[in-house]
Amino acid sequence: KIGSLTRKTVGEKNMNKANKTILLVGETGAGKSTLINSMVNYTMGVKCDDKVWFQIVEDEKRSQAESQTSDVIVYEIFGFEDKTLPYSLTVIDTPGYGDTRGTEKDDIVITRLFELFRAEDGVHEVHAVGLVMKAALNRVSDRQKYIFDSVMSLFGKDVEKNIEALITHSDGMPAKNVLEALQAANIKCAINEKNQPAHFLFNNCLNTAITEDNEFGLDTAWRVTERGMNQFKVFLEKTPPQKLKTMVEVLNSQIRLKACIQNLQERIKFTEEKQKEITETKEALKLHRKEMENNEKFTVEVPEYYKDKKSIDGGWWGLGFYEGAVCCTVCEENCHHPGCTVAWSAGSCEVMKNGRCTACTRKCPVSAHVKEKWIYETKTRYVKKTNEDMKNKYEINKTKGQNKQSLFENLEEEMNKLTAEKSQLLDESYQHLVRLEQIALKTDSASTLDD
């Protein structure tokens, strides 16, 4: 396991041997599973004449419902260095990106990849991002475009030199239609010596048992895949890896900023509600001014806004996700909600930096926070208060040296403070939005998807 992610390992890792990491992305049914098995057999040095086939990934003959999982699986192939490759392989298999369940499931996969990249024992560099595509492809669909743009949004533009097309179900003929489709869709990837998108061909029949009838065809299929793997090997050896440390830091910053913006929006709303409370209180006082002047015990009904806890849908789900909210019990604010799924506790949430929260008003320490299945929400209640009650409420923050003012003057002063506070919160929110735009790795890929 890597955190809550699945890791499948063949052989034993030798720390003195080099390792190359490949990330595979593609639509459900593109042929990723068979391609991974082909990589395993190639790494082990299996040849067609051996009449044997090793399988680390299940067949893609499972039902579509079974194959549409949101799990990211890491395959590690150790112990076969110098058979055909001078290094071991790590292959990250992303599940049926862009399947029929919609882009919200794709976003879960992005979150899982992020978890993998930031885990201490996870993956910290990627040598190749393989866009797995069928040889019969004539057009990149909106869903496929979304898939590929999602990867760009995760890594940034520097990853282009590491991206290549891994073309499956190929008969070995030039994949002219696939290359034209990539260029027409403006999919950015590495360029080969022929000034074409870097691509490699693979056949998906290698797991078929050899018979007298198919022996010739399978021999051709093996040669197609072996040639593709040989060329891919050269690509891996000459392409510098994409280091993920900076990317993880940037994505953490994006998550923090988004959480801060959400928190600021809630604080702005609460400020507006307190302004509404003062306005309604002043109106009630004006209406009953004479009665209150003549009778100190006379009460008026005024609104009072307060914080309360509200249950939300959440808890453990999937393979290790904990849907919940990180809240500050001192400020009584929601510091990360919605979107807090990776962190198992408040201390491991992205909004925490150097032991303190970056979102709440007082920037409180981690110890003041909880991750639970509830959030703070603002509620209204109407209470009866005397003139003296309200004087005490709105003079509570005054020092002894300050001149006493009438209740109306105190209310007006409080309104001015809230107006200034709201202006400050709006400005802070705007600055966060500007910063978010500045560090954005790429425009949100969802904008390219036509539903």
UniProtKB/TrEMBL annotation:
Keywords of the record: Coiled coil, Nucleotide-binding
Where would one find coiled-coil regions in this protein? 261-295, 401-428
Question: Which Pfam family, an example, fits this chain?
Answer: AIG1
- Highest taxon, organism lineage: Eukaryota
Per its UniProt record, what SUPFAM superfamilies does this chain match?
P-loop containing nucleoside triphosphate hydrolases (SSF52540)
One GO term in the molecular function aspect is: GTP binding
- Domain AIG1-type G per the UniProt entry, residue ranges: 20-204
Question: Record's family?
Answer: Belongs to the TRAFAC class TrmE-Era-EngA-EngB-Septin-like GTPase superfamily. AIG1/Toc34/Toc159-like paraseptin GTPase family. IAN subfamily.
Q: What protein am I looking at? A: Uncharacterized LOC102789649
Organism for this UniProt entry: Neolamprologus brichardi
